[in-house]
Amino acid sequence: MKKLALCLLLSLSACGGSREFSRASFNGPLQCAPYARSRTGLQLSGAAASWWRQSAGHYARSHSPTPGSVLVFRATSRVPSGHVSIVRKQISSRTILVDHANWEPGRIDRNVPVTDVSPGHDWTLVRVWWAPIHGLGRRAYPAYGFVSASGPDDAS
């Protein structure tokens, strides 16, 4: 009887020990918006794409990255709630390193390259490093710009 109980306990603990999410799923216990909020202190909530609109009149918005600012991605069919990433460092005029949660479902990634590929060099279209291919992803994602807790609001 004890052996049966031990086997049952081990099998149940194996079920809850780790979760695997489909690469196409952005729904899971780890989400980008709560992660960014906890790391930056920005008091914004809801879908990541709504952060741009919510920040108007409350936080600085810009089309230039600064360390600690949050890059806000627009909602698309591939990322229906949008996405937010925290800028760690600017590498060049068109490349930054970010920290973000759930770009790869269920993971927090740090020092991830993001490259501006927008025609106007204004960070409204970006490509993001995709670890499974060890390079920038093939898709470009539309973005609004950067939100930060201080500084002038120079974007509309």
Automatic annotation (TrEMBL):
SUPFAM superfamilies: Cysteine proteinases (SSF54001). Residues 7-127 form the Peptidase C51 domain. Residues 1-16 form the signal peptide. PROSITE patterns: CHAP (PS50911), PROKAR_LIPOPROTEIN (PS51257). The keyword Signal applies. It comes from the Bacteria. The keyword Repeat does not apply. Gene3D superfamilies: endopeptidase domain like (from Nostoc punctiforme). Keywords: Signal. InterPro entries: CHAP_dom, Papain-like_cys_pep_sf. This is Peptidase C51 domain-containing protein. It comes from Gluconobacter thailandicus NBRC 3257. The lineage of its organism: Bacteria, Pseudomonadati, Pseudomonadota, Alphaproteobacteria, Acetobacterales.
